[in-house]
C-alpha cells in the first residue's frame, strides 16, 4: 500500500491505515493485559494543557483543544481495554480565580465540544457505548453550558458499556460540603415528619432513633461521585504528585500514578504502564481495603 503525502501532511487514507495498524497493535497488547486483573475505574487529572501550548508556541487556547483530543483518545483506549468507569477532572472551582478571559475561553470550548458531540450522527460516545455524566456544582455554570450538559447526558443515557464522568466546576471540598448539607436536610426532614406524627420531641442522641444518626453511607449517597465506584487508578500528568482537591474522599485505596508528560501528550503506552503498575500492586491494595472494613 502506498501512503501519499498531501500538502501540509499525511493523507487521510494514510491516517486511516496507520490508525488501523495502531488498533491491531493495541488489541494485541490489551489482550495480554486482560490476563491479569483489570481496573474497574480509572480517573485522570488532566494537567499541562496551557504549558503544552506555550512550549510549542501555539496560539492561545490551542493547548486545551489538544487536551480535548487527548481525552477522546484516552476514552477510546479505555473502552477497548474494557474499563467500565472513566473520570476526567476537567475544571476545578478554584480555576474560576484565574483571569476572566482564560475562564471564558474554557467555558466556550466546553460548550463548543458538547454541541459538536450532540451534532454528530455517529459520535464517539454512540460508537463505543459511552454514557456521559457531569459531576460538580453545576449552579456555578452559565445556563447555555448547563443546558448543553443536560442534553448530552440525556442523549447518551441509554449507552451502557462505559460511564465517562466529567468533573466540571468541581472540588472535593465542595463535594463533601454538598453531601453533608444534603444529608443533614434529609435527616431533618425525617425528624420533622416523625415529630408531626408523634407530636413529641426526637433527640439525635436517642438510641431508639438510630435512623436519624448520620452514617457514612448517608453521606456517600449524596456525593457527586456516588454514580461510580472509588477509582482503582488516578493518573496525573505534568509531573505533579498532588491530587489538587480531586476525589479526596474516594482515593484512600487508589493507585496514584504521575507522569512527567503534559496531558495533550499522553499516549496509550502511559495507560498500559498504569495498568501494569496497578496489577503489580493489586494484592497490597486489596489487603489494605480489607483491613479498613
Automatic annotation (TrEMBL):
Pathway: Protein modification; protein glycosylation. GO terms for cellular component: cytoplasm. PROSITE patterns: UPP_SYNTHASE (PS01066). Keywords: Transferase. Pfam families: Prenyltransf. CDD domains: Cis_IPPS (cd00475). Catalyzes cis-prenyl chain elongation to produce the polyprenyl backbone of dolichol, a glycosyl carrier-lipid required for the biosynthesis of several classes of glycoprotein. NCBIfam families: uppS (TIGR00055). This is Alkyl transferase. It comes from Theobroma cacao (Cacao).
